[in-house]
UniProtKB/TrEMBL annotation:
Localisation per UniProt entry: Endoplasmic reticulum membrane; Microsome membrane
Organism encoding this protein: Pundamilia nyererei
PROSITE patterns: CYTOCHROME_P450 (PS00086)
Alphabetical keyword list: Endoplasmic reticulum, Heme, Iron, Membrane, Metal-binding, Microsome, Monooxygenase, Oxidoreductase, Transmembrane, Transmembrane helix
Cofactor(s) the record lists: heme
One of the Pfam families matching this protein, by short name: p450
Cited SUPFAM superfamilies: Cytochrome P450
Gene designation: LOC102196444
One Gene Ontology MF term: heme binding
Keyword Mitochondrion: no
Transmembrane parts of this sequence: 6-27
Name under which the protein is recorded: Cytochrome P450 2J6-like
GO biological process, one term: xenobiotic metabolic process
Family membership noted in the UniProt record: Belongs to the cytochrome P450 family.
Residues given in the record as heme binding sites: C442
Length: 495
């Protein structure tokens, strides 16, 4: 009697609805047979213990120790598969390249892009292939492989050196300068011009970019990806991602407009010109050669090409200042091979094996894209014996590769020896994957490597970097879509 009374009461109705929802949720979200194991996920909110973790990539490494190299994890209601360790990440990205080449749906991406215009980073299928091929060939035409890009980087190094010299050895923040210098290379490529370090509007644009990347990887970004319906209606920092992205889009739209005014069909100056010409010649729009998509692809190149390389250069300062003996050894090698006045060139790289090894170790330990970007299973497949159904999001974690205990002699120690043989010659390492791997490997890898080498050598040729006595630079990093060093100031003593 009391039970039927309870069921008819307000509390009873509420409890019944809740239980019904739980049963529906359970039936809908039941794991398929042989799905990878993972930590217990709460209904509706999933494994929300990740929220508030300062370093999710380290947390994932710990989960891999418990559940193995292929395990499942729930962001909100979305179940995804996390892939860890060099061998398994290579299996997913290289051996099964076609199965995991696409990006999954992203609520945030959905607001940046549209069905017909989804840029370079988020596009899939024929449109992605056409846009990627076009971007790579434009990159080649504008200098990669020839020395035009090299010259452009060397010119920028001179501007950067002059700017640093003006600090006269006093403490300064290198982040803004490095961002501007590196961004100028992407700008030369995309829009054929550079921006002066004193250009206030451009500085604001760069601040926008940094904020986008920081917020995308923050708890706010994670909440938006998991609960877009709710987060869209709530105030909070996540809204800044969209307003900042609109500013970047507007900035590039203006560039496209001015390019259209003085476009010379026989003499394309940059990516925007080449795209505009392609658009006129190719009437098909389903390959993404539209003006809206031009703006979005340019924004992707600008975003991906700025913060990543600039952040790696900041990590370079952190590690060299923490290891002054290594800084000295790099400078001695540069002095010996290039001297202090001639500009560096890519032809010098084979003669600077120690310097090259140090740059690689900075990229490994800097680990600037710790989680990598998401992929999605194009069809039902198997990883490590587990069933991965079509449509499952897959995250091949780069931290787990760059710090894989079975691949690196001293994974947690800064050790340029990882890239040197017994005779001091540079050696490539298979598990060096900061740019990811497979068909969707970083599109700017060659450009980034050229920039890192030339900027790094150009900086150490001219300056010795240090911090005041008693200051120790942290290697912990601040986690966003990229992992950046905590803000710091340095002295740059002219050599
Ligand atoms: C140190 C510098 C850099 C690092 C560590 C880096 C790393 C990465 C990573 C991990 C990805 C994801 C790949 C995947 O999904 O498997 C990526 C994608 C991408 N990167 Fe980079 N990147 C760097 C510099 C650059 C530069 C300089 C550019 C362009 C000028 C660039 C353009 C892109 C683009 C367009 C994509 C998307 C590729 C696609 O989806 O097909 N990156 N990058």
């Amino acid at each position: 009697m009391w039970f039927s009374n309870f069921l008819l009461s307000n509390e009873g109705v509420l409890l019944s609805v809740f239980l019904l929802l739980l049963i529906v949720y359970h039936l809908r979200n039941k794991n398929p047979k042989d799905f990878p194991p993972g930590p217990f996920a709460l209904p509706f909110i999933g494994n929300f213990q990740i929220v508030g973790k300062k370093h999710p990539h380290i947390y994932f490494n710990k989960l891999a120790e418990i559940y193995g190299n292929v395990f499942s994890f729930c962001f909100g209601r979305d179940k995804m598969v996390i892939v860890s360790g060099y061998k398994m990440v290579k299996e997913a990205l290289v051996t099964q390249a076609d199965n995991f080449v696409d990006r999954p749906y992203s609520p945030m991406g959905d607001r940046f892009y549209s069905a017909n215009s989804d840029g370079l980073f988020m596009s899939n299928g024929g449109k992605w292939k056409a846009q990627r091929r076009f971007a790579l060939s434009t990159l080649r035409d504008f200098g990669l492989g020839k020395n035009r890009m090299e010259q452009c980087i060397c010119e920028e190094i001179q501007y950067l050196q002059e700017e640093i010299e003006q600090e006269k050895g006093k403490l300064f923040r290198p982040a803004g300068l490095f961002n501007n210098a590196v961004s100028n290379i992407a700008c030369q490529l995309v829009m054929g011009k550079r921006f002066d370090y004193s250009d206030h509007n451009f500085q604001l644009m760069l601040k926008n970019l940094s904020e986008i990347l920081h917020l995308e990887g923050s708890i706010w970004g994670q909440l938006y990806e998991s609960f877009p319906g709710v987060m869209k209606r709530l105030p909070g920092p996540h809204n800044k991602v969209f307003s900042n992205f609109n500013k970047v889009r507007e900035f590039i739209t203006q560039e496209v407009k001015s390019h259209k005014k003085d476009l010379d069909h026989n003499n394309p100056r940059d990516y925007i010109d080449t795209f505009l010409i392609k658009m006129e010649n190719l009437k098909e729009t389903d390959l993404g050669f539209t003006e809206t998509n031009l703006v979005l692809c340019s924004a992707d190149l600008f975003l991906a090409g700025t913060e990543t390389t600039a952040t790696t250069l900041l990590w370079a300062l952190v590690f060299l200042i923490r290891h002054p003996d290594i800084q000295e050894k790099v400078q001695a090698e540069i002095d010996n091979v290039i001297g202090q006045t001639r500009q560096p060139s890519m032809a010098d790289r084979p003669n600077l094996p120690y310097t090259d090894a140090v740059i690689h170790e900075i990229q490994r330990m800097g680990n600037i894209v710790p989680l990598n970007a998401l992929r999605v299973a194009a069809k039902d497949t198997t990883l490590d014996g587990y069933h991965i159904p079509k449509g499952t999001s897959v995250l091949p974690v780069l931290t787990s590769v760059l710090f894989d205990k079975t691949e690196w002699e001293t994974p947690d120690t800064f050790n340029p020896g990882h890239f040197l043989d017994a005779d001091g010659k540079f050696v490539k390492r298979e598990a060096f994957l900061p740019f990811s791997a497979g068909k969707r490997v970083c599109l700017g890898e060659s450009l980034a490597k050229m920039e890192l080498f030339l900027f790094f050598v150009g900086l150490l040729q001219k300056f010795t970097f240090s911090v005041p006595d008693g200051v120790e630079l942290s290697t912990e990093g601040v986690y966003g879509a990229t992992r950046v060093p905590e803000p710091f100031k340095v002295h740059a003593k002219t050599r």
